[in-house]
Amino acid sequence: MEGPNPFLELGTELVRPADELRERSSGIRAVLFDWDGVFNDGWKDIEGGSPFSEIGSMGVNMLRFGLWMQNEGQLPYSAIITGQHNPHAQRFAERERMHGLYMGFINKVEAFDSFLAKHHLTANEVAFFFDDAIDLGVADRCGLRILLRGQAGEFFVHHAISRGCVDVVTALSGGQNGLREATDGLLTLMGRYGDTIDQRAAYSQQYQNYLAERNAVSPEIVRSAR
């Protein structure tokens, strides 16, 4: 990587060598997100909801666009798995045209297996963004695992790394827009950051083609019966 290393400057931690992560990213066909602690700082309102940032939203969209270009016009499958029933997450999934939202899944592996089966994916084709213990069963299996560093979670970071289910750790937490750090970092590893941002800035024909395909998606909302 020429010039200053953005990972070192920001403090993003690459747990595995950059070359290995680039190789892994080349096979990614889907992106999967936890909600609390990833899109926000984890605090709840009186109704049990938690919001999202437009900065993180743009990052997710840019990552999907970058993967669409990498995979020659194949839209990456995208979903959120959360242990809570959250109207903010539903609003995001519907607005951003995610493929799925799985709510109320205390055992997230059940939702993960359903997501894989529905879209004919293997686990190593999924990039997973997560932050806490409830996510580890999914992180154990995914091809690329990005851990959002919690504001008081260094013990968890060390444990997750020793467990072998983390590839990248952000310097910032979800409440500090660490999700944008994570998506931008993955685009940088893919070698597509500048092109992705510039094409969005120009509202290029290629971006418009991606957006039309993205906006044709009808999100599937799945609520756990438990």
Description:
The chain is α/β, with parallel strands linked by helices and 226 residues long. The protein has a single domain, classed as HAD superfamily/HAD-like (Rossmann fold), CATH 3.40.50.1000. 44% of the residues lie in helices and 14% in strands. It contains ten helices and eight strands. The chain has helices at residues 6-10, 18-25, 54-70, 87-95, 108-119, 136-139, 154-163, 178-190, 193-202, 205-215; strands at residues 13-14, 30-33, 77-82, 100-103, 126-130, 144-147, 168-169, 220-223. An eight-stranded mixed sheet has the order 1-7-6-5-2-3-4-8, sandwiched between helices. Helix 7 links the parallel strand 6 (144-147) and strand 7. It is globular. The N and C termini lie far apart (48 Å). The model has no long low-confidence stretch (mean pLDDT 91).
What would you say about this model in short?
This protein is of the alpha/beta class and 226 residues long.
